[in-house]
Amino acid sequence: MMKVYVSSDHGGFDLKNKIVEYLSGKYEVVDVGPKTLDPTDDYPVYTEPLAKKVSEEKDSMGILICRNGVGVSIAANKFDNVRCGLSFDPKHVKSARNDDNINVLALPSDFMDEETALKIVDTFLETPFGAEDRYIRRLAEITELEEKS
Fold first, then answer.
1. CB of 49 within 8 A of CB of 147?
2. CA–CA separation, 21 vs 23, rounded Å?
3. Pairing of the two strands 28-33 and 84-86
4. How much of the chain is helix, strand and coil, in % rounded to 5?
5. What is the pLDDT of residues 25-74, one digit of tens each?
6. What's 66's DSSP letter?
7. 113-133 burial string, b = 16+ CB within 10 Å, else e?
């Protein structure tokens, strides 16, 4: 069973809890936190443990939620082997999984309803990487850029 880490800051707290509940039983779901709502928390505190786990566990996936999704995606992409993508739409996330093999999904809680978020989550977790030569080549080029920086 695939392991899925889920985390948020205060802005994504309610949606995180709904996603954890929705995915439980379908996947091995790990709620990385927060466990209680703290309106003053900061997203890097909750992004780091999730990104570390996905970085270390090659077959795991992650879902991060904040108000606009940008902050968590920037923070997550600082970790080796993490390819975090922000998505607003199931078709978009399907392309991101197929073409770019994202392994962490960032969701903007202030810009979508629960139903849309759950459709995006399902698509993210159910779509395999396309593994076409051009996609593999591009990911290798990204790895090369990371090693240069």
1. no
2. 6
3. unpaired
4. 50, 20, 30
5. 999 999 999 999 999 999 999 999 999 999 999 999 999 999 999 999 99
6. E
7. eeeebbebbebbbebeeeeee
String of DSSP letters for 7-27: EE-GGGHHHHHHHHHHHBTTB
Residue 130 identity (one-letter amino acid): G
**Residues pairing with 61 in the sheet:** 4
Task: Give the count of beta carbons closer than 10 Å to the beta carbon of residue 22.
Answer: 15
Kindly report, residue by residue over 88-147, the tens digit of the pLDDT: 999 999 999 999 999 999 999 999 999 999 999 999 999 999 999 999 999 999 999 988
- Please count the helices (runs of H) and the strands (runs of E) in the chain: 6, 5
Query: Distance between CA atoms of 96 and 31, rounded to whole angstroms?
Result: 23
Classified by CATH at the fold level, domain 3-148 comes out as Ribose 5-phosphate Isomerase B; Chain: A, (3.40.1400)
- C-alpha to C-alpha distance for 34 and 118, rounded to whole angstroms: 20
Going by C-alpha positions, the residue among 4, 43, 2 that lies closest to residue 20 is 4
pTM above 0.90, yes or no: yes
The single-letter code of the amino acid at 114 is E
Angle (CA) 99-100-105 rounded to 5° is 120
